Amino acid sequence: MIGGVMLQFDFFAWLAGIPQWLEDVILWIWGIVKGIIWWIWDIIQWVWAQVFLPTNFMFLFRAVLFPGLVFVVLALIWAVWFTRKLWGRIQDRRGPVHMGKYGGLQLFADAIKLIAKESIIPDNAKRWMFRFLPGLLLVIVLLPFCFIPWDFEYWYIADLSVSLVLVFAFLTAVPVIALLAGWVSGSKYSLIGGFRAANNQFAAEIPMIISTIGPALLAGSLSLMGIAQAQTNIWFAALLPINLATFLVAAIASVGVFPFDAPVADSEIIFGWRTEFTGIYFTLTYFAEFAEQMLYSALIVALFLGGPVGFPFLPGAVNFIIKFIITFFFFVLVSSSFQRLRQDQIVHYCWKYLLPLALLNVIVIMFAIVYLPGLAALLPLGGG
Amino acid sequence: MSPDILDEAMEIWFGPQHVSAHGWATKLTLVGDYVVECDPNAGYFHRSAEKVLEFKNFRQGSLVLERMCMLEAFLAEYPYVAAVEKIAEIEVPERAKVMRTIMMEMSRLHSIQFWWGQFNAELGFFTMALWPWVDREYSLDVFEELTGSRHTVSYSTPGGVKYDFTDKFMETLDRAVGRFEDRLQKFRDMQMGSPTFRARTEGIGLYDVKQGLKWGLSGPPIKACGVPMDLRKDDPDPNLSYDMVDFEIPITENPEHPGQSDALDRMEQRFKEAEVACDIVKQLIPQIPDGPIVDPKARGKANRLPEGEAYSRIEGTRGITSLWLKTQDKAQTAYRAKIRGPCIASYYALKDLVPGSKFADFIVIFGSLDPYPGWWDR
After folding, report:
1. Are the beta carbons of A254 and A208 closer than 8 angstroms?
2. Which residue of A has its CA nearest to B122?
């Protein structure tokens, strides 16, 4: 070609270079992959080292296994079985008997059945909120368990100076979620149930928090651990018996089981805010109800019944669990022996009777501390 | 009621898929928590019983009737049998009369036991719902021992009854009545003494005699106002043996509101009804005469009836249960049968009774009147 530039290109040399080029590409990719693998391996090594650091390992053990998640879930399974069995006995029937010894595996059978069921989401429902809220509810109810003082040393997860306030902050979210769940379900019955749940909390929360002022005052602490430690000499149940009763009633009203089960009154509004939940979503809300009852039982033990204080020959956590079971028994007993109240009657009872009684006990005990020096000496307030 | 209040109203269908609505649907209009309008709807339980009766012969008809209300099967089937006996002029043996009466009162007892549990379940007290249902099992044992069936008993037949009382049956009967009489007193004190129960029922669904009679109520809902209106005394059926027993018509008079009844009075009235039913059964057991249990010629007589018409009525658990039967000459089936159940009156009474009450009280008012959908969907 005249006057043009000819590209000098050795085709055969290029052909011979292809394997080299491919090898380079593969090596380059391998380098990246190796880097990622090493990086992951480093992370694993670091996590491993962190986990098996003596302090970290035991913290994780407590958070995940013993007073933590696994223990709480096992206790939840036990609580459902215990409730059903006790309800059966009170109601002149046998409760679950077929699955396992004394029907102990009934809950697993029910859970498998419910999880295997089709999850129906109504057309009118807000789909993502409908899916999200039951799980959120269970998480919010399970979180406060980490502040429960199962024992004074070692067998507890976290001890905050304001854990009492934080627990109530979490629990206030529960009826809000119930209201939201009723709202996003897109059903009139669910909406009514959601508002009734909010109404229950409106009625019960103030008496409940006023009832906890007594223990907090006497212990001079807003930490559940501090309140439990203040009861080494004398349980607050002896000084604040009325507050114990008002807290128990307000807790039942706040959970929304019989006789305060207007939010899920099955004969009136089908199943309240849970009407449209099926399958796994229903299972989560059902577990959340039991977890909330258990949480309130544990709070009662920590606030009024001395926490881990008890038989000196037993470990503190065992003492706590014994008292916890007895308190939970009262929950089941009360919830199986009263008629359901109307929602305006719930507000009426809570505000007209519980609130003044809770205040009365606080005032009485304040005067008692001032005028009985021997009493004040039993408490960490000092005095005398 | 100004129109802008109704702008905020919410219409809600109570039924037919509602768990408390077993075969009925009521449209409620709510403003806030109050019911301002109540629209009872019939037709969700329709089984064409009256039409079916035109295709069944006169011994089969009572089987259709007992399915109108399975809770009081012995009582429900009887008006048809009585009407056939009237037209065919069939004599009933004395023994069969007493046996019928005993079983009808047992049926009343069973129905009250069931209602008691159901009402407590509607009020949200499942413990008290299951305790009467334990006693109900004993009543069902009685029915099963006698007829082999717990609900669809088909006991009365034109000219007598189908099955004789055996010794084992008498033991079962004594056990059921004795046990229930014992437990009735305890449960009654527990139920009426419960402050939460009183809080839910006192002053709920209050009406007076005049309103009740205007709506056409009968049975416990009107007797709870203090009106001694009872067909067992007022118009005793000649083929039943209520004249052999000595009993008072159970009525409830609340001194707080004389001439009126609320849900609490209607509960009290049912307890009294159950007591009287137990009393009648216990009085009749030693008086059962010997003899045949069915007229042997009745089967032939009931095969083809002469032309005629008959109206028969009894005091059912829920009120006056009646049936009008018209036959053609030498026909094997009825020309027309008209059933008048007691509950259509108490169901449509909700239309006037419920507005103004709270939504949560609707089911209490409904349960205290005890309408059974079989009686209005015929």
Report:
1. yes
2. A267
Residue A340 C-alpha, separation from nearest chain B C-alpha, in angstroms: 5
Burial class (CB in 10 A: 0-12, 13-18, 19+), B87: buried
Q: Using CA of residue B268, residue B269, residue B271, residue B275, what is the dihedral sign? A: positive
Nearest C-alpha neighbor of A187 from the set A275, A106, A261: A275
pLDDT tens digits for A262-300?
A: 888 888 888 888 888 888 898 899 889 899 999 999 999
Residues of chain B with pLDDT under 70: 1-6
Ranges of beta strands (E only) in chain B are 10-14, 25-31, 34-41, 156-157, 160-161, 207-208, 260-261, 308-315, 320-327, 334-340
Gap from B105 CA to chain A (nearest CA, Å): 26
| Domain B48-342, CATH among 1.25.40.10, 1.10.645.10, 1.10.510.10, 3.30.420.40 | 1.10.645.10
The 3-class SS string of A79-97 reads HHHHHHHHHHHHCCCCCCC
Which residues touch B330 (CB under 8 Å, ≥6 apart)?
A: B304, B306
- Checking if the pLDDT of A382 tops 60, the result is no
Domain boundary assignment for chain B: 48-342
Mean pLDDT of chain A: 87
Best of A267, A334, A335 to disrupt the B interface (most B CBs within 10 Å) is A267
